[in-house]
Design a protein that fits this description.
transcription; elongated; alpha+beta; four-stranded antiparallel sheet; 2 domains; Alpha-Beta Plaits; 158 residues; Arc Repressor Mutant, subunit A; sequence-specific DNA binding; transcription regulation
Length: 158
């Protein structure tokens, strides 16, 4: 019998959902302006947001940067097959790589699904040959380069 503490699911009311929806689209909105939109005081909005942060519902506030505007022109999705006994080791090494923007363990034969961004093709090739292929346990790598982005959403939308 496990005695590990489980955090209960937080029940969000409609006002919390409204606040989260607005913050998802307008993360820099002031508490005052947000309060006007959800019919609460600035102090009440701030208290609710702090509760959502403390409960782990809001993980962080961040800016979404357009990679092309800062010289990053190559966006690649990778499926990395790894020998099962090395999966955790490979994942821990890849999560430290600056080019890796997301990394997931997927269903299938020990698959890691990864997204990476690079300034050019040569940088991507160097990542593959010097950083990814040499990792112990990597069996195969499948890459798909992004041609055009139609939709990209950060975080979860309610």
């Amino acid at each position: 019998m496990s005695h590990e503490y489980q955090i209960p699911n937080l029940v969000l009311d409609e006002t919390d959902k409204q606040i989260l929806t607005i913050l998802h689209e307008e993360g820099r909105i002031s508490y005052t302006d947000l309060g006007k939109r959800v019919d609460l005081s600035r102090v009440a909005v701030q208290a609710r947001i702090n509760q959502l942060i403390e409960a782990g519902v809001i993980e962080k506030f961040t800016a979404v940067i357009n990679p092309a505007k800062i010289g990053i022109h190559v966006s690649v999705f990778f499926n990395v097959e790894v020998e099962p006994q090395f999966l955790e080791e490979v994942a821990l090494k890849l999560e430290e790589e600056p080019a890796v923007t997301s990394l997931y363990h997927m269903t299938g034969p020990s698959k890691l699904h990864m997204h990476g961004i690079f300034t050019n093709d040569q940088e991507m090739e160097e990542f593959l040959t010097k950083r990814l292929y040499p990792l112990r346990g990597v069996v195969s790598v499948d890459c798909q380069m992004l041609i055009k982005r139609y939709k990209s959403r950060m975080g979860m939308k309610l």
